[in-house]
From TrEMBL:
Residues 251-287 are annotated as: Disordered. The chain crosses the membrane at residues 12-34, 46-70, 82-104, 111-130, 142-164, 171-192, 212-236. It comes from the Bacteria. InterPro entries: MHYT_dom. Residues 261-273 have a biased composition (Basic residues). Pfam families: MHYT. This is MHYT domain-containing protein. Residues 10-199 form the MHYT domain. Keywords: Membrane, Transmembrane, Transmembrane helix.
Length: 287
């Protein structure tokens, strides 16, 4: 028998919180990605890795917050711990590959297409791998068209976000991009959930795994800690907020006062004002 699927058992609470988490992860990750291009090249891998961890953690947290509101009438839903951890690892690794491509090749042309595709596939893979870890007394089927649409939305959202990160137009620009990215990622999730059909067996056999509250609550501590760490780095690094490198300061040579050249005439004009210069003989004098 076909079970009644409800993705909003807590009303709008889980979609709104999930959207905010996707926006938070996107904002922090994009600012770290932008910051990677503003400093020394030796610091770039660290910034890109932090950005990948922030986006991956934000997307993963968004997914499972939304899944807390997912219920199927007639059967409890449990989750496999190993598969759930694997979905987090896939999200961080594949998002990291896409970010590193754009971080080193630039957010244009082939690099942007490749990086956005890999990042989008990572988001979609995380979603469906997490769904594969779901255990219930029934059979889960998917609508192929809706699944394909969710993957396309994920790739488009990732490409747009990486392009915005490469523009480095300031903090407000990235905030706007993160809001769009959060909307697209959350939309990808619910499009994928609309593709789900559950046929309940009705055998009353207990499902294996752990409940959402028992498993997902403690597991979110790690991703939330990553987001807090990225947030602290963003807050205390002025370049991340400004979104641009500081202007290079003029080099000060020893013995030369640091005055503005606009207040003094050129050297040649000063020499003409003093009149002819007396040339001294270079022949040493005898004593």
């Amino acid at each position: 028998m076909q079970g009644t699927v409800d993705g909003f058992s807590y009303g709008l609470v889980t979609p709104l919180v999930a959207y905010l988490m996707a926006c938070l992860g996107g904002a922090l990750g994009l600012r770290c990605t932008t910051r990677a291009g503003l400093g020394p090249r030796s610091w770039r891998p660290g910034w890109l890795a932090l950005g990948a961890a922030a986006i991956g953690a934000g997307v993963w947290t968004m997914h499972f917050i939304a899944m807390m509101g997912f219920t199927v009438e007639g059967t409890p839903i449990h989750y496999d711990r190993a598969m759930t951890y694997a979905s987090l690892a896939v999200a961080v690794v594949m998002v990291g590959i896409g970010i590193f491509i754009v971080g080193y090749r630039g957010a244009t042309g082939t690099a942007l297409f490749t990086g956005g595709t890999v990042t989008g596939l990572g988001m979609a893979s995380m979603h469906y791998l997490g769904m594969a870890g779901m255990s219930l007394d029934g059979r889960v089927e998917y609508n192929t068209v809706a699944v394909a649409a969710s993957v396309v939305v994920a790739m488009a959202a990732a490409s747009a976000a990486l392009w915005a990160a490469g523009q480095a137009r300031g903090f407000l620009w990235s905030v706007g991009a993160s809001l769009v990215m959060g909307l697209a990622v959350t939309g990808m999730h619910y499009i994928g959930m609309a593709a789900v059909e559950v046929h309940v067996h009705g055998t009353a056999e207990p499902a294996t795994g752990e409940s959402a509250a028992a498993l997902l609550g403690p597991m979110m501590v790690g991703p939330l800690a990553v987001l807090v760490l990225a947030g602290l780095v963003v807050i205390f690094d002025p370049l991340v907020v400004m979104g641009r490198a500081p202007a290079p300061s003029a080099e000060r040579l020893p013995g030369i006062p640091a005055h503005s050249p606009a207040h003094h005439p050129p050297v040649r004009s000063r020499l003409r004002a003093r009149g002819p210069v007396e040339h001294r003989s270079r022949t040493p004098q005898r004593r």
